[in-house]
Design goal:
The complex is a heterodimer of chains A (about 375) and B (about 250). With about 375 residues, chain A is an all-alpha fold. Chain A is built from 16 helices and no strands. Chain A has one domain (about 10-385). In chain A, about 70% of the residues lie in helices and about 0% in strands. The longest helix of chain A has about 35 residues, at about 70-105. Chain B is an alpha/beta fold and about 250 residues long. Chain B has one domain: SGNH hydrolase (Rossmann fold). The radius of gyration of chain B is 17 Å and the shape is globular. Chain B starts with a helix and ends in a 6-residue tail after the last helix. In chain B, about 55% of the residues are buried. Classes of the chains: A mainly alpha (about 375), B alpha/beta (about 250). The interface between A and B is large, with 59 and 59 residues.
Chain lengths: ~375, ~250
C-alpha cells in the first residue's frame, strides 16, 4: 500500500493554481503590456504547466480518496462526469468566440487585411465548423487547455487505479508514453489542419506526475528535492533559462548564443512539452516548495485569499478568465489601447475573477447549509474546491 | 515576450535610435530594420552584373486588391525605390503572389522561379499557415528546406513575416509561426524583415491607426510604401555587410 494521501488539502496548490489562472488571463489578452510580467517571459515554462500539474495533483487527491473508499466504478464515473462538465464549459467558450469573430467580421473592413480576413471563412460553413468544434478538432486560439484537460480526465481512471496499486510503475508508463509520442510523433488531429496545440500524449506526463506527487510521491522525494545540490541545480537552470529568454526579447543578444547551443535547445517545443520546459517547471517547483512550506503562515493571510479562492474554483474562473481576455481585447480595439487602459483592464479583470470566486464560494456555502439539499460528496469540502 | 519587446522599443525610440527613412512616417528603431546577415549574391549582382532581379513570393498580404492595387503594393514600390537609389543598376522586381497559399505550397513553385536566376527572393509567409493551423514545427521545417533550396538555386533570401493586425490578433495564433521564422532566419543566417514588429511599433506610437475600419486603399498604400522602403534599406544593408566581409555566406 502506498502511504495514504495527507488529509488536509495543501493550500499552496490553490494559491498557485489561482496565480496561474491570473497569468493565463493576462497572457491571453493580445499585446497586453501587463503580460510582460508573467513567467513565460522569464523562462521556458509558463502558466499552462502549473495549471496541468496542479490539476493532476488535485484530481488524484479528490478522486483517489473516492476510489479507495467507494471503488473504481464510482470514482471513475465521477471523473467522467467532471470531463463532461469541462466539455460543456469549453463549448460555452466556443460560442463566445464565434460571437466575437462574427461581430468583427461584420464590423471590420480594411483592404490592408484582406488576407487576415480568411479567419472568417469558418463562419461561411457552420455545418463543418460547428461539428469539428464539437469533436474538439476545431479549437480556436487560446482554447486548447480545456480540450487537453478533457482528454486527460478521460484517460485518468485506469491511471489512478494503477497509481494506487503500483505508483512507480504508473509513472514509468506515463514517461514511456511521453517518449513514444515523441519518437513516433503521436498527436491528435486538428481541423482544418495540423494537430492539437497541447499534445495530450505528451502533456499527460505532467498531469500524472502531479497525481503521483499527491499520492505519496511528494513525501518520497521530499528529502531529495530539499537537498542543497538540487536547490543549486534548480537555481542554476532557472538562471540559464532566464539568460536564453532574454536573447529572445533583445534580438541584438541572440548572436551571443553559441551555435551548438542553439542547435541543441531549439526549437523549444510547447506542443509536445519539451524536456526543457518540464525541467524549468520542476526547477520552479523545487524552489517554491523549498521556500514556501506547507504550513507557511502567509497562506492564511487576507492578501493571498483572493488567489486561493480563484484556485479553488478553477474551472469556473478559467472560463471567466478566457471570456474576460476576449472582453479586454475588445476594449483595446473599440476604445483605447493606451498603456493605462491596458493596466486598468488587467487589474479589473483579476478583480472580477476574484469577486466571482468569492461569489461561487458563497453559493456553495448556502447550498451546503440549506435544509433538504443533497449532501455534498464527502471530500469536496475538505478539498476546498473541485479537481 | 512581444510586449516586453514593445516596451524596449518604446524606450529605444525615445532615446532617438531612429532610422532616417525617406518618409519620416516609416521610421523604426534600427534593430527592427537592419540586416543581421549579408546578401552576397545581391552584392555580386549590384557590383558586377549591374542587374538586380528580385522575386517576391508571397500571399494576399503581398499585394493590394482593386484597380491599381498591385502598383501600390510593396513589390512594385520596391522596384521604384531601388531604381531611384541604384541608378546604375537595372532593377526588376517580379511577383509570384497568390492568396491562401501555405509556405509548403509556395515551396513547390521554387524550382520554376529559380530558372530565371534571380539574385534575391523575398519570401513572405505565415498568415495562411497560422489560419489553417499547420503545425509550427512543420512550418519551421518547410521554411528551413525552402531557404536551403533557394540558396542552392543561387539566390539570396529575405524572409518576411506576417502583418500586425490588432483586430484579428486574438483569433490567429501568429506568435508560434513568427518565432519559427525568426529561428530559421538565425540558423540559416538570412535577413528577416520583421513586418509584425514593425507594424506593431507604428501602431503603438500612433503613426498609423491599424484599428480603423475603412474601404479606402490610402492607409494600405502608405503602409506598403513604408514596407518597401524598409526592404530597400535592408537590402542596402545586406549588400554593405557583404562588401565588408566578402567571403561570408558563400
Amino acid at each position: 500500500m502506498p502511504p495514504a494521501a495527507p488529509a488536509q488539502r495543501d493550500l499552496r496548490l490553490d494559491l498557485f493554481r489561482g496565480l496561474a489562472l491570473w497569468l493565463i488571463f493576462l497572457d491571453h489578452i493580445p499585446s497586453n503590456i501587463v503580460s510582460w510580467a508573467t513567467i513565460r517571459n522569464f523562462g521556458f515554462s509558463d502558466a499552462a504547466e502549473i495549471f496541468i500539474f496542479i490539476s493532476g495533483y488535485t484530481a488524484a487527491f479528490v478522486y483517489g480518496r473516492a476510489m479507495r473508499e467507494r471503488g473504481f466504478i464510482i470514482a471513475g464515473a465521477r471523473i467522467l462526469k467532471r470531463a463532461w462538465q469541462v466539455y460543456v464549459a469549453h463549448m460555452f467558450l466556443f460560442v463566445i468566440y464565434m460571437a466575437e469573430i462574427a461581430y468583427v467580421s461584420s464590423s471590420f473592413e480594411n483592404p490592408l487585411y484582406h488576407e487576415e480576413m480568411g479567419i472568417f471563412d469558418f463562419l461561411k460553413q457552420p455545418d463543418v465548423t460547428l461539428i469539428q468544434a464539437l469533436l474538439l478538432k476545431f479549437k480556436p486560439v487560446n482554447m486548447d487547455v480545456l480540450p487537453l484537460y478533457i482528454a486527460l480526465l478521460l484517460g485518468f481512471p485506469p491511471i489512478l487505479w494503477l497509481l494506487q496499486k503500483q505508483a512507480t510503475l504508473a509513472l514509468a508508463a506515463s514517461a514511456a508514453l511521453y517518449a513514444l509520442a515523441w519518437h513516433f510523433g503521436w498527436n491528435l488531429p486538428a481541423y482544418p489542419s495540423g494537430h492539437w496545440w497541447f499534445n495530450p500524449f505528451a502533456w499527460q506526463l505532467l498531469f500524472v506526475l502531479g497525481a503521483w506527487c499527491a499520492l505519496g510521491g511528494a513525501e518520497r522525494i521530499g528529502r531529495f528535492i530539499r537537498s542543497p545540490i538540487v536547490l543549486g541545480l534548480a537555481a542554476a537552470y532557472l538562471l540559464f533559462a532566464l539568460v536564453i529568454v532574454m536573447t529572445w526579447h533583445f534580438s541584438s543578444l541572440a548572436p551571443y548564443v553559441p551555435k551548438w547551443l542553439s542547435e541543441a535547445i531549439y526549437p523549444i517545443d510547447k506542443i509536445n512539452l519539451d524536456v526543457l520546459r518540464i525541467a524549468h517547471f520542476l526547477a520552479l517547483a523545487a524552489i517554491t516548495v523549498r521556500f514556501i512550506p506547507r504550513d507557511w503562515p502567509g497562506l492564511q493571510s487576507v492578501w493571498l485569499r483572493p488567489a486561493i479562492l480563484c484556485g479553488q474554483h478553477s474551472l469556473e474562473i478559467f472560463c471567466l478568465g478566457i471570456f474576460l481576455s476576449f472582453a479586454g481585447h475588445f476594449v483595446f480595439n473599440e476604445f483605447s489601447d493606451a498603456v493605462f487602459v491596458q493596466v486598468l483592464v488587467s487589474a479589473l479583470g483579476i478583480a472580477i475573477m476574484c469577486a466571482a470566486a468569492a461569489l461561487i464560494s458563497w453559493y456553495r456555502k448556502i447550498e451546503g447549509r440549506s435544509p433538504g439539499s443533497r449532501s455534498k460528496p464527502p471530500d469536496a469540502d475538505l478539498a476546498g474546491g473541485e479537481a | 515576450m512581444r510586449t516586453l519587446c514593445a516596451a524596449a522599443l518604446a524606450v529605444l525610440a525615445c532615446i532617438g535610435a531612429v532610422l532616417a527613412a525617406e518618409s519620416p512616417d516609416c521610421a523604426v528603431p534600427a534593430h527592427l530594420a537592419d540586416a543581421d546577415y549579408p546578401l552576397p549574391r545581391v552584392a555580386a549582382a549590384v557590383d558586377q552584373a549591374r542587374q538586380l532581379d528580385i522575386v517576391v513570393i508571397g500571399t494576399g498580404s503581398s499585394t493590394l486588391a482593386g484597380p491599381g492595387g498591385a502598383d501600390l503594393a510593396y513589390p512594385a514600390r520596391l522596384q521604384v525605390i531601388l531604381t531611384k537609389r541604384l541608378p546604375a543598376v537595372k532593377t526588376k522586381v517580379v511577383t509570384s503572389v497568390k492568396s491562401r497559399r501555405s509556405a509548403a505550397e509556395m515551396e513547390e513553385s521554387f524550382e520554376k522561379i529559380l530558372e530565371e536566376k534571380p539574385a534575391l527572393i523575398i519570401w513572405q509567409s505565415g498568415t495562411v499557415d497560422a489560419i489553417t493551423g499547420v503545425d509550427p514545427e512543420e512550418y519551421r521545417a518547410t521554411l528551413d528546406e525552402g531557404v536551403e533550396a533557394l540558396h542552392a538555386g543561387g539566390a539570396d533570401v529575405v524572409l518576411m513575416n506576417m502583418q500586425y493586425s490588432p483586430r484579428t490578433e486574438s483569433m490567429i495564433a501568429i506568435q508560434a509561426y513568427a518565432d519559427s521564422m525568426r529561428l530559421v532566419s538565425q540558423q540559416r543566417q538570412v535577413p528577416l524583415l520583421d513586418r509584425f514588429s514593425i507594424m506593431r511599433h507604428w501602431s503603438e506610437l500612433g503613426i498609423f491607426d491599424l484599428h480603423a475600419a475603412t474601404k479606402k486603399l490610402e492607409l494600405a498604400a502608405r503602409i506598403h510604401d513604408c514596407i518597401a522602403q524598409l526592404l530597400a534599406d535592408l537590402i542596402h544593408d545586406g549588400v554593405k555587410l557583404s562588401r565588408e566581409q566578402p567571403k561570408a555566406g558563400q
